[in-house]
Amino acid sequence: MIDKNQKRKINKQIGARVKAVREASAYTQERFAEEIGLSIQHVSNLERGITGPSISTIIKMSKVLGVSCDYLLLGRSGKRDVARVESQLDNLTTDQLVIVDKGIRIILEAFKVPVNALGDGAEQQ
User: Fold this and answer.
1) Is the pLDDT of residue 121 over 50?
2) Residue 81 neighbours by CB under 8 Å, 6+ apart
3) C-alpha pair distances (Å), 52 with each of 4, 8, 12, 30, 115
4) What distance separates the 2 farthest-apart alpha carbons in the chain?
5) What percent of the chain has pLDDT over 70?
6) Could you tell me the pTM of the whole model?
7) C-alpha neighbours within 13 Å on the C-beta side of residue 15
8) Given CA atoms 8, 13, 16, 22 in this order, what sign does their dihedral have?
């Protein structure tokens, strides 16, 4: 069982991650609160670790912020955390996606990763 001190510490860690990602995503507390259907005060309390988020709130926050629930809860990211990149790519035009593809190919070549791992780009929707 988790005691009060452990729970408070976990809430503060989650809140700090939420705040950092919210700010990096250029959301104000007001706009973020609107997007996830909470009051500004509740978002403030979550970010300060005063209250902990419900499971449904974690899911809403992860979707709006484009990060995984794992990241918000545990701070884990990496190869499995593609939700943020995917949400950003969804908002790009075809021309912008071509530029991103070229950039990724350049980066992979610099790291000596086979570029053909990306495919030839022919599989468009």
Assistant:
1) no
2) 67, 68, 70, 71
3) 12, 8, 8, 19, 43
4) 55
5) 83
6) 0.62
7) 18
8) negative
| Position 53, amino acid | P
pLDDT confidence tier of residue 80, bands split at 50, 70 and 90: low
103-109 long-range contacts, CB within 8 A, separation 24+: none
Rg (CA), the chain: 18
User: Does residue 17 have a pLDDT over 60?
Assistant: yes
Q: Is pLDDT at 96 greater than 90 in this prediction? A: yes
Is 58 within 8 Å of 17 (Cβ atoms)? no
